[in-house]
Amino acid sequence: MTKELTQLQILTELEPVAEQNLNRHLSMAKDWHPHDYVPWDEGRNFAALGGVDWDPSQSRLNEVAKVSMITNLLTEDNLPSYHREIAENFSQEGAWGTWVGRWTAEENRHGIVMRDYLVVTRGVDPVALEQARMIHMTNGVRHPEGWGGFLHSVAYVTFQELATRVSHRNTGKVCHDPIADRMLQRIAADENLHMIFYRTMCGAALDLVPDQAIAAIVEIVTNFTMPGYGMPNFRRNGVMMAKHGIYDLRQHMEEVVAPVLKNWNIFERNDFGPTGEQARERLATYMDKLAQDVVKFEEQRDRMLAREAAREMASL
Ligand SMILES: [Fe+2]
Ligand SMILES: [Fe+2]
User: Fold this and answer.
1) Is pLDDT at 80 greater than 90 in this prediction?
2) How many helices (H) and strands (E) does the chain have?
3) Nearest CA among 62, 142, 79, 86 for reference residue 115
4) What's phi and psi for 148, nearest 5 deg?
5) Are the beta carbons of 181 and 173 closer than 8 angstroms?
6) Distance from the alpha carbon of residue 128 to the mean position of ligand 2, in angstroms
7) Region 202-216 average pLDDT
8) Residue 13 in marked binding region
9) Is the pLDDT of residue 1 over 60?
């Protein structure tokens, strides 16, 4: 059985990996500019500057695209909460500190470009968007009691980055606007590189302290909430996004959780002690249950869509 390491010991041990990983990230990351992704010539003043205020007829986005854009943007807006979590739980020194700063600056671009796009194209109500931002950022992101420390954080952001990648990419598809799609693909590519950084760090933690790391991973996976949790209208919006395949349970299982667990070789490893083995068993049980829930959700969704189609036919 491996010896328990403190948070500081883990961070110190993993510093060389963080440095390597940071350099890899810097060599892969593309420098891009939010202004290149926004159709500025579509913009015009609002009433306060002598123009016209927003009204729903100005938007070209369908309901699913609007809800998904808002949810994804508010998630990006909550960067201060995520920054706090990462800055508190990763070291501020050396490669760790450089990563935290660099990652924060990259994430900030996502909120900038999406808001510029939505305001310039009048895709959503800018007043409602601002009100939702105020509420969401004031609340911040809260994690369940008992979470905290490097291992929980690094496991959480691994899944969160991949989940936002999926959500941005699929939102791009439902916008039916090549400019929005290009912008969201650009963001999704960033999220993928972020995910790779965190996944590599969490994988290195698994090799270093297998039992401690698997306990944190299991805690995160079994309590994970979809992007947008805690936002105004999260339930309604989350359901709409799941219903239309922007981010649903099957995508969560097949495109987010399972590939990461496979990358870490969770179910093939033989370096766990008794507590690690127990945690892995809990995870296996959870994954079986998730697979059943996926089937149940899809049956419900099919019934719901069929009912809606029948209602539409009846109203014609
Ligand atoms: Fe982002
Ligand atoms: Fe990201």
Assistant:
1) yes
2) 12, 0
3) 79
4) 150, 165
5) yes
6) 25
7) 97
8) no
9) no
